[in-house]
Amino acid sequence: GKKQNKHIGELRAQNQVLKKGVVDEQANSAALKEQLKMKDQSLRKLQQEMDSLTFRNLQLAKRVELLQDELALSEPRGKKNKKSGESSSQLSQEQKTVFDEDLQKKIEENERLHIQFFEADEQHKHVEAELRSRLATLETEAAQHQAVVDGLTRKYMETIEKLQNDKAKLEIKSQTLEKEAKECRLRTEECQLQLKNLHEDLSGRLEESLSIINEKVPFNDTKYSQYNALNVPLHNRRHQLKMRDIAGQALAFVQDLVTALLNFHTYTEQRIQIFPVDSAIDTISPLNQKFSQYLHENASYVRPLEEGMLHLFESITEDTVTVLVIFFLVLLLGTGKHLTSYLCFLRKILPYQLKEEECESSLCTSALRARNLELSQDMKKMTAVFEKLQTYIALLALPSTEPDGLLRTNYSSVLTNVGAALHGFHDIMKDISKHYSQKATIEHELPTATQKLITTNDCILSSVVALTNGAGKIASFFSNNLDYFIASLSYGPKAASGFISPLSAECMLQYKKKAAAYMKSLRKPLLESVPYEEALANRRILLSSTESREGLAQQVQQSLEKISKLEQEKEHWMLEAQLAKIKLEKENQRIADKLKNTSSGQLVGLAQENAAVSNAADQDEATAKAVSEPIQSTSLIGTLTRTSDSEVPDVESREDLIKNHYMARIVELTSQLQLADSKSVHFYAECRALSKRLALAEKSKEALTEEMKLASQNISRLQDELTTTKRSYEDQLSMMSDHLCSMNETLSKQREEIDTLKMSSKGNSKKNKSR
Q1: SS3 at position 641
Q2: pLDDT at 612 over 60
């Protein structure tokens, strides 16, 4: 803001200076105009004098011509009249003297006028040159001033535009800050209210909790570490799974490490059997025999590391409480006794590794002896690293037997030292790999090197490389998970500052099992519930679908009404059926009475014949052709097929046929009626759903129209603001353009006056030349 105000002050000062310069130039132009007017007046006077003189010269020239003509005419006459001429010659001589005097006066006057005209012309040329030089300087100054004015106006406009943009940005920023301040005030008020409510709520809860604790709790078991150790910690399934995952990865790394150690010790034993003395050709020294015997027992010391780790890995499940990181370290490097036994094995073979018989051989060169000494020092360092690891692991395992043996705060430093020891083990294995590869290269160049020795050296090198890779993986793995190991120390009973004794841990695990069994007995299957998102989607569907509650209620009401009507119709038709059954029984009795009166033989014959004809019609098509063709009668209740009058049908079959026909027709009509009812109900529900959708669409349309009105109002307001800003800018630009136009007009007027002066001077010079 200060820089902008300073810049505006500088621009205003420059503007004042430019205004003063413009005023001075206007005054100079006015003075030049007055001078030009005076010069113009003097030129006009001189022009009038020149015109009068030229007119007088013309008159004198005409008079001289007349006199010359008269003189030419008088000469021949003088020749003729010599006598008379003597007298007239005197008169002409007098006239000639008069004319000569007059002519001499005119010549002198003309000479004087020529001198005056030459002086005026020289003066005019001098004034014109001065005016032209001054005009050129004024034009250059005006151009410079115009360029400065244009630059300043452009700069002024840019600064104005920049300041206006900054002003708009600052206004927007101030508005946003005001809004944020208002929101912050509202939030602070809400937070204060919430804080007040929470304070009241928490104070009430605190009083209630204190009263409950005082009444119900006999003692605080978290106050004493012995009692707190029996509390079951919160179950953290993620922690258990993470520990199992880490333990699984470590188990894989240690399995690779164990395999590499087994190969290294085994191939070292094979090398002792063939170098420097081959056991197949000659007997080896007693020292190497003892060394080979110890190396042959390496599996009994190395294999228990993998077996113990596998057993402990399988013991970590979701039901256990893995609180101590010692479990991971046991998985990583085996239990304490297995690691101690392997360390004893390394100490047992270390003297044999330091006392190399190869160096005493005559085939051993100085370079090979130096490599052997380096390898013996590396083996010594390797044993020292394992001793350091065993010491740290013994410290970490100390709380499993003595809970107060190591404070929990010291665990981070011990874990850091374990990581450093593992990295040191990796570095030592890299040195062993490098030195052994150099040794193998030198031995391969010996003339006594056999193929068996070369193969054994390659196998030892591959096992050393595998051991180096395994050590590097374990070191990097431990370093990557070191923060998690330190953070996992906080997992355990609440307010616990130390570790749990084994007896307390066993009791705590029993309590955990009991608590899990109790919670499992209390667990009841929850009813299936619809997810919240699905319920919202179903609600939207129900608002605009045919399966809404009102529609379903109306459908149920209509269905109940239809069921009641159908029940009434059912009762009516059951009564009608009973009446028809009674009539049928009466008709059957009457027909039976008639049949009794007729001959029984004819009736039996006809019945046998009809039965034979019907059976033949069913069995064979040829016999069916002998029966007369049936006659169909169509009515509103359907199509009925009957035989001709010549055939006497069976009474019972005819009744069954009519009954089946009516029943089929009733079923068909009821199905059609039900289909029509269901369609009508469906169409009615669809219409209701469409009307609901239409109402919802109308509501959304009204909301959108309101939003559109608000948007249009905002647009019109913004357009008005834009027009006002445009007008202000246009007014400022018009003022500046008017000012520039006025300056251009003054300059153009000055140029026109100068042009007129040039034209007048050119005209005078032409006239003088013509004279």
Answers
A1: strand
A2: no
